[in-house]
Amino acid sequence: EVQLVESGGGLVQPGGSLRLSCAASRFSLVNNYMTWVRQSPGKGLEWISIINWNSGQIWYGRSAKGRFTMSRDEASKTMYLQMTGLESEDTAVYYCGNWNYVVDSSWYWGQGTQVSVSS
């Protein structure tokens, strides 16, 4: 079974920054996509970004708002989400997801990491 371990969440003041990490336990991430989503109280799941691991191409959703940057470390099979200019509306549980489009029938998800933006 695939395990995704997220870290890096916490409490930050408005305008602050955080970097989230997500390490995947798969032997290889060839033919994989990895993604970040978030969920805040009273809101549905909100998509942030996704990366095609083969090509490194990244797409961002509206919630990224030009303040979030996704990146990866291929050797450690870890992806990151650098968040800057954080606002109270960014308070949410952030989840990373993984999908091998050749062998998986559904996405795998991490346990989530809480990000709280408050003064």
Helix and strand topology:
Elements: E1 4-7, E2 10-12, E3 18-24, E4 32-39, E5 45-52, E6 58-60, E7 68-73, E8 78-83, E9 92-100, E10 108-109, E11 113-117
Parallel strand pairs: 2-11
Antiparallel strand pairs: 1-3, 3-8, 4-5, 4-9, 5-6, 7-8, 9-10, 9-11
Structure description:
- It contains no helices and eleven strands.
- It has 119 residues and is an all-beta fold.
- The strands form two sheets. Strands 2, 4, 5, 6, 9, 10 and 11 form a seven-stranded mixed sheet that branches. A four-stranded antiparallel sheet has the order 1-3-8-7, with no helix packed on it.
- Strand 9 and strand 10 (108-109) form a beta hairpin.
- The model has no long low-confidence stretch (mean pLDDT 95).
Annotation, overall tally of beta strands: 11
If you compute it from the alpha carbons, what radius of gyration comes out, rounded to the nearest whole angstrom? 14 Å
Q: Please work out how many helical segments DSSP would assign.
A: 0
Order of helices and strands: EEEEEEEEEEE
Poorly predicted runs of 5 or more residues: none
Strand content: over 45%
Give the fraction of residues assigned to helices.
under 10%
> From the helix content, strand content and strand pairing, which structural class follows?
mainly beta
Give the N-to-C terminal Cα separation.
Answer: 40 Å
Q: Write down the overall geometry.
A: globular
Main beta sheet, described? 7 strands, mixed
The residue-averaged pLDDT reads 95
